[in-house]
């Protein structure tokens, strides 16, 4: 198993994973839209995607980070918006490898850290806690949608 920084050359491996991730979150499957979205991220260079591959270069999972800033600390911060591991690859260290690679990237970039949001019943929370992530009990998270 290896974790790489994905590029447009990895689109064929990544798009089915991204599509499955969206389906996991109850979105209608649409591989063309998933591919188009990822192509745009690569073209605009507005996210960083890490892809976990097996020995045969089959995609096992991915994580996507979006850059942001903390005005208070005057530092970059990354938003880990997406983390997905195929059902066949779960419980094999793929999620942990992706999270650790994201942490290494954030450190290398000199950022304040990484933040993420997840459903209250997402079982991946056990992994986050195991890796030293802390739940932000002292803040409220609000969303406004169009």
Describe this structure in words.
- The chain has a five-stranded mixed sheet, with helices on both faces.
- By secondary structure, it is of the alpha+beta class.
- The protein has a single domain (2-130), classed as Aminopeptidase (3-Layer(aba) Sandwich).
- The model has no long low-confidence stretch (mean pLDDT 93).
- It has helices spanning 11-24, 31-44, 94-108, 125-130; strands spanning 2-5, 48-53, 59-70, 75-85, 114-116.
Detail the topology: elements first, then pairings:
Elements: E1 2-5, H1 11-24, H2 31-44, E2 48-53, E3 59-70, E4 75-85, H3 94-108, E5 114-116, H4 125-130
Parallel strand pairs: 4-5
Antiparallel strand pairs: 1-2, 2-3, 3-4
Helix pairs in contact: 1-2
Quick description:
The protein is of the alpha+beta class and 146 residues long. It is built from four helices and five strands; from the N terminus they run βααβββαβα.
Features:
single chain; 146 residues; alpha+beta; Aminopeptidase; 5 strands
What is the CATH topology descriptor? Aminopeptidase
Rg estimate, integer Å: 15 Å
Strand order of the largest sheet: 1-2-3-4-5
Biggest sheet overview: 5 strands, mixed
Spatial shape: globular
Provide mean pLDDT, rounded: 93
